[in-house]
Design a protein that fits this description.
It is built from 9 helices and 10 strands. It is an alpha/beta fold. InterPro entries: Alpha/beta_knot_MTases, MRM3-like_sub_bind, Ribosomal_eL30-like_sf, rRNA_Methyltransferase, SpoU_MeTrfase, SpoU_subst-bd, tRNA_m1G_MTases_N.
Length: 249
Amino acid sequence: MLSKSQIGFIKSLHQKKYRKENGIFIIEGIKSIVEFIQSSYQIHSIYYLAQYQSLLPNLPANIKLFEINNAELDKISTLQTPQGVLALVHIPKSRSFDISSLKGSFSLVLDGVQDPGNLGTIIRTADWFGFKQIICSNNTVEIYNPKTVQATMGSLSRVNVYYEELSGFLKDIKVPIFGAVLNGTSIYETKWGNEGIVILGNEGQGITPEIINLITNPVTIPRVGEAESLNVAISAAILCADINRNLQK
């Protein structure tokens, strides 16, 4: 049985302030938890319903295990329908971004993406297409937001995400800077080459004017129908797919 202080602590991690203060975030669902266990992330503790115990892999002795009941899980879960297993994970120490890692590959850059689900889906998409890193503006939603973590479906354990002041960062890089805008070159006519970054903007406002001025290769996903815009996560998937198609030619 969990104490009131344990429940209170876990519930506090639903908020960004306390995740940052304690250096811990929440993941839920056996599949995602197993992927984090197998990654470089450090697991703090795992809370599980009895019927899920057999699904847990062999765990290091330093991971605390707590068998809980449905009522307790309902109190600590961030989900309307809890998935039976919840884990607390240590937030890694922030690392400085190595600009040389941009050479010879493609990376995504996110300028002010605000929806946690969109960010999580973009991370999962990047993982699917083999993009190893994403660079976010400082005003992009936090990657450890529970909705973001849930939407990555474990891919956060494999994709490196950094936060940078984009205008300064972009002035220093030596690879092509592609940007998804409404009036660029069609992606079907774009020569992607074998390296670069691809910038996607805020859901409502797009890429900020300051960052647009730093784009060397504006690109557009051609519109055929009447929709006013594309969801940013869908745009990321289309761009990643087209880049991979060209790399495999």
